[in-house]
Design brief:
The structure is a homodimer of 293-residue chains. With 293 residues, chain A is an alpha/beta fold. Chain A folds into two domains: 182 residues, HUPs (Rossmann fold, 3-Layer(aba) Sandwich); 94 residues, Pantoate--beta-alanine Ligase, Chain: A,domain 2 (2-Layer Sandwich), CATH 3.30.1300. Chain A has a six-stranded parallel β-sheet, with helices on both faces. In chain A, strand 9 and strand 10 form a beta hairpin. The longest helix of chain A has 16 residues. Chain A is globular, with a radius of gyration of 20 Å. Chain A starts with a strand and ends with a strand. At the A-B interface, strand 5, helix 4, helix 6 and helix 7 of A face strand 5, helix 4, helix 6 and helix 7 of B. Strand 5 of chain A pairs antiparallel with strand 5 of chain B.
């Protein structure tokens, strides 16, 4: 059974009746692709109720970003979730999907909503440098959605790895009673990570977009197969060479635990890239274990 | 019965055993005076358990403020609460006071605590102008304490009126399950509002401190007894005259509901002053109903 709830009031009533059912939550901006669907699938497997929020959150878009043109496709999204529900053979079971798709911004930010939640140390790097205020918008809306949805588990894709770390730390610092579940990146056959922004790309840009994924893959291979003392200078060289292409916003590596520069005991390295194709900016990342001996 | 809890772990264990008891919360920086005591008294009256936190929160002090010298008097504070418990005739009853006095800063801000909670619209005025970051520190610590204490009611003195409004709005925006209870300002016989900072004053400064309270009282009388169209120019003149004394940080009036400039339908005016005496800065305020006809 799939329900669509268009206001917070409506949602609150729905929520009140869930008693002791376990609740999985997949917050999205809508325009669902296979990445999102993999989160919903995982939530369905592990919870009685799966709530998918669809809300294009103005606070996480900068003044010159694509808030206005961001694709709003509630009808299609609903159909995709219905199709998933059917294909997972859930019809007739107690498992339930609810779509929380607030009809207006006021549903999430009522009455001169004034709170801003930020995690400056984790935000002021990578995407945060090029998108000031973006992660404040993300943490604030995710907190707000958590406060409405009150899920047991929340599913986040690792494509937005920095976002995942920020929400994880927010949950910890704020002692929120939510378990965050990171899910692996979903990719097209040629390796490009699924993103709602891929559809902005021209044919040529779509071809060039592979530079992002391929470069990260190349770096990953070096780290994976080489002892770190040798890998580090090698990947520094790849990065320096790559950055001559000015379409890179950033291409770098950090400790995947805290986004700090890797230190001697760093176990898992995160490789992070952002690449501009015309007006479209895509991000991707890969994790790789460092080899010390 | 009075218990003292010195770590969050200890507190969590204590909290787990409270079942369905009602919990009143009085967050303080310690150095309790009659203002604080009036909050504790009110909480005792209305709740099974009253939790008084004593924590000098570094985040709410600016780099040139009195964090280091702020009086830490846990022994005296405990005695005052014991005395109150006795004088309120609570010995042998089920009513309980617990003092949550974290032994170190890490108890409240563990593991590179990174979250900052701000309410910029309410914070960037009055005390916020002269104390950048102060209210972020306040809302962040109060949120953190709420997340640990999980009270039903929280008591705040109206001397820090801006702080009260910020916490009230934070509770609302964040959908926190806490009822905020504002309590009237407690004053010395001569009218000076109780403050832990009063003890910093020299004899002469202590005498001059009355300028703060008296000026606010004078303005209040005008507003109370005069129709607003006439009161406004009269109080503007008092304020302009007063501000020639450069010891004022600010002296102004705002809508007490939202700290905006009063508009036609403003019901309750807030009169706000901050006054410097040597290194000490004192604040005070009064509320007064506007007379329109």
């Amino acid at each position: 059974m799939i329900e669509i709830l268009r206001s917070t009031k409506q949602f609150d009533i729905f929520r009140k009746n869930l008693d002791k059912k376990t609740i999985g939550f997949v917050p999205t901006l809508g325009n669902l692709h296979r990445g999102h669907i993999s989160l919903v699938k995982e939530s369905l497997r592990n919870n009685d109720i799966t709530i998918v929020s669809i809300f294009v959150n103005p606070k996480q878009f900068g003044p010159n970003e694509d808030y206005e043109k961001y694709p709003r496709t509630l009808g299609d999204d609903t159909n995709k979730l219905k199709e998933l529900y059917r294909s997972e053979d859930l019809i007739g079971t107690d498992k339930q999907i609810a779509i929380f798709a607030p009809e207006s911004i006021d549903e999430i930010y009522p009455d001169n909503f004034s709170v801003n939640i930020s995690l400056p140390e984790l935000s002021n790097k990578l995407c945060g440098l090029n998108r000031p205020g973006h992660f404040d918008g993300v943490s604030t809306v995710v907190y707000s959605l958590f406060s409405i949805v009150r899920p047991n588990k929340a599913y986040f894709g690792q494509k937005d790895f920095q976002q995942y770390l920020i929400i994880k730390k927010m949950i910890e610092d704020m002692r929120l009673d939510v378990q965050i579940v990171p899910m692996p990146i979903k990719r097209e056959v040629d390796g490009l990570a699924f993103s709602s922004r891929n559809q902005y790309l021209s044919k040529e840009e779509r071809a060039d977009a592979l530079i992002l994924t391929r470069t990260l893959g190349e770096i990953k291979n070096v780290v994976k197969n080489t002892i770190w003392s040798e890998a580090k200078p090698a990947i520094d060289q790849i990065i320096n060479e790559s950055l001559k292409d000015t379409r890179w916003d950033y291409l770098t590596y950090l400790d995947s635990k805290n986004l700090e520069n890797p230190v001697e005991k760093t176990y898992m390295l995160g490789l992070f890239g952002a690449f501009k194709l015309g007006d479209t900016r895509l991000i991707d990342n890969k994790l790789v274990e460092i080899k010390y001996a």
